Structures are given as structure tokens and as C-alpha cells.
Amino acid sequence: xxxxxxxxxxxxxxxxxxxxxxxxxxxxxxxGHEAVWVMKPxxxxxxxxxxxxxxxxxxxxxxxxxxxxxxxxPQRVDMEFDDMMTSSGVPVxxxxxxTFRVTDSVILVSKFGADRNDKTGDWGFWQxxxxxxxxxAVRDSVKKRGMQEMAIFQTSADExxxxxxxxxxxxxxxxxxxxxxxxxxxxxxxxxxxxxxxRIETAxxxxxxxxxxxxxxxxxxxxxAEFARADADNAYNEKxxxxxxxxxxIKQIEMMHDVCGKGNCTxxxxxxxxxxxxxKK
Length: 281
Hints:
By secondary structure, the chain is of the alpha+beta class.
């Protein structure tokens, strides 16, 4: 009889626990995530944020409680800048990629919100608190540099990224947003299409000038070689006491030898002259 009573009581306890558990809210965050409890009592007590987040494992909350999942992994923010004015008065366009990580999920949820746009993936707290001040920091940094400097030298873009990262860190600390700015990179800087066209034309003109200079240099070298060869021939003729007519005849013979160096050729020497020369190598 006692065993039967014990079995009935045990079964009732198990059933009651199952009913209670099935009505509870279950929080089981993935690795790299934290769950922040938001308590919502129906009758008694006060709602609010549980100061202890769920970091690992499984935890049950009250039926009326809910939780917000917060990723503690590095997050990416993309910012586009069109027609950003430089110190030279020419606007440029570029893309900025910032990365951050949440340092306190409870403070983020309770004071700044952890909502995200389902379509764009943007964090609400970033758009409400950090986006505009950081964009202002980017504008102030770019305005100190010229268009050529920004568009040609990647080091200038890297300097802008470093300056803006430092400014963003100060903004985060001032507003006490629980995030850490881990990196901020400025992508390729693009000048207006009209400037690109001018740069292409200038490059083409410069290349044509270089080609002309090289052509003139080659012609000057060839001319100098011809003069040097002529001077050498004149010096040889004078030393050997060869007349111009004899020199021309020697050149003709050399030419015929070059043409028929690998075979037999017959040449008629002079107009109406019968004798021939048989040129053999």
C-alpha cells in the first residue's frame, strides 16, 4: 500500500514538473551569443532586465518572461560615402567597413537596445547613437586631404581609417555604448567620372610623349652610328689612298658577296661589257 502511494506521489510530482516546465520560457543561446532575460510579470512584481545573462547551457524563465539574443561575436558595419568633399574642392566616393564587438549584453539591451533590421542587418543602437558622429569624423578627416592624395595613395586612406577609428573609440566611450571598435577600413577612393576621364587622357598624352622621346633617341643614335661609320670609312680611304670610285666598287663587291655568299652567282659588270665575275664563297 505504501509503495503504491509513493508511486502515485512520484508520478504526480513528475507530471506537475513537466506541466510547469512546458509552460516556461526556454533560453539556450548558441556559442558566441548571450541571452538577456526581459521579465514581464502579469500581476505581482516589477518587470525589468535580469542583470545576469545566459551565456552557455539551458535556462528556464517564467512563462511571462522573454529573452533577447545578443551576438558577442565581431560584427560588421558598412557605410557608403558619396561626393565627400576633399581639400582640393573635388568630391570623392568610397566605402568604409567598420567592425565592433559587444562587451556587455545586459547594458546594451537595457540602455541602447539590441534590435536589428531584418532586411539590412543594421544594428538599431548603431544607427541611433554612432552612425552620424562617425560619419562626421570621416568627413572631417577627408577634408584635410586632397583628391589626388586620397585617390592615388592607399596610405592616405589608411590614415583616414586610423583617425576615424580613434575618433569612434572616443565617441563610444563618451556615450558609454558597451561596444569595442576593433577596426575601421577605408576602401578604394573613386573621384568623379570627369576626373577619371581627364586622368586617362593625361596618361595617354604622357605615354605618347614618352614614345616620341624614345623614337627621337633611337633616331639620334642611328644618325650618330651612320656618321661614325662614314667617318671610319673616310679615315680608311685616306689611309689606304682609295679613291671614291674605288670605294664604291669595293662596296659593290661586298654587297654581291653578301647576296651570293651561299651559292654561285653570275654578275655582268658594267654596261655592254662581256666579261663576268663568278662569285664563290
